[in-house]
Specification:
The protein is α/β, with parallel strands linked by helices. 43% of the residues lie in helices and 19% in strands. The chain has six helices and five strands, in the order βαβαβαβαβαα. The chain has helices at 17-30, 49-59, 75-81, 94-110, 130-138, 149-160, and strands at residues 4-10, 31-37, 66-70, 86-91, 115-120. The strands form two sheets. It has a three-stranded parallel β-sheet. Strands 4-5 form a two-stranded parallel sheet. Helix 1 links the parallel strand 1 (4-10) and strand 2. The longest helix has 17 residues, at 94-110. It starts with a strand and ends with a helix.
Length: 161
Amino acid sequence: MSSVPVVYAGSFDPVTLGHLDIARRARDVFGQVIVLLMPNVNKRPLFTQQERLELLREALQGESGITVDRADGLLTDYLKKHRLSVLVRGVRGAADVDHEFLNAHYNKLFLPPVETVFFPCRAEYAFLSSSAVREAFSYGADVSALVPPCVVQALAHKAKS
């Protein structure tokens, strides 16, 4: 195992078991992963950025080699500031590949040394997304098989608010 710090960025609204799986697998390959919470202006989040940060930290508490951070602005600005050059992305299928290749292209355009490493999701997470969790939750579905316990609790709290 090498010990190259890599960045796994996303909006994580909410963090799912699929996200956690990618973070752990990346850690197992690279030694160190920064799970980076980034805003996504194209999405209307259920959780605030602070809530998502706390949920990520709780879900990954005690995981050696994994840290959680947050940033605003361009991902490449964060990479430059912290002298990082490897991104990890999870892909579920062809639609993700097209989208992630486009992002990888722009990241490389803005920061030429950056490399993006793709991890295919495990079969059990092939159709899992934060948006699917949010939608299922909005209809009252039990999403406890899709997200960590801290998210189940946070969703229950949201339902009461």
